[in-house]
Design goal:
By secondary structure, this protein is mainly alpha-helical. It is built from 8 helices and 3 strands. It has a 3-stranded antiparallel β-sheet. Strand 2 and strand 3 (147-150) form a beta hairpin. Helix 6 (110-119) packs across helix 7. It is elongated and about 75 Å long.
Length: 169
């Protein structure tokens, strides 16, 4: 095999795909539209279309390590909540690990949900935690407060990081 018949692979990283497409279009005699050019580039790179490329290229939000460290101060060495924080944003973050330990798609009466909350708190104020979880849309309850269930949602990056750290304890 001769050297001229071998293909050399050259990686190409493009910081601004839109600018790259604009520059490429300007060098063509009959350029496609900007959207069509983005689609052509995406397909040439092995994607189905520009939307797929964009979806896979979007950066995932990163957790703020300072917020996670602040929240960890409210937990003991066993991962139990020591005290309920005063700041509302910190309360919601500290509730996330308790929420994560409540089984999804199950209905609990008040006594059962309180017992689960008490397992993950070093202090005994399940009523406050229950109310806060309802206010933060982590739990739903019937009007009479007799039935509770976990509301499914995607936790924030900080909450996911905090949950991961506490699960290791």
């Amino acid at each position: 095999m001769s050297t001229s018949s071998r293909r050399e692979t050259i990686p190409l990283a493009i910081d601004d795909l839109s600018g790259f497409a604009r520059a490429l279009r300007s060098s063509l005699d009959a350029p496609p539209s900007h959207q069509q050019m983005l689609g052509l580039i995406a397909r040439a790179a092995g994607y189905r279309n520009y939307q797929q490329l964009r979806a896979q290229a979007e950066p995932k939000p990163q957790a703020d390590p300072k917020q996670v460290a602040r929240a960890l101060r409210h937990f003991d060495e066993h991962g139990r909540l020591l005290r309920f924080p005063g700041r509302t944003a910190m309360q919601a973050l500290c509730l996330a690990p308790i929420w994560a330990r409540i089984p999804p798609r199950q209905v609990f009466n008040e006594r059962e949900i309180s017992a689960r909350i008490d397992l993950h708190c070093a202090f005994r104020d399940a009523a406050q935690i229950r109310r806060s979880m309802v206010e933060n849309r982590m739990l739903t309850r019937t009007r009479d407060g007799a039935r509770y269930s976990r509301i499914e949602h995607r936790p924030s990056p900080e909450a996911l990081a905090l949950i991961a750290v506490l699960q290791k304890l």
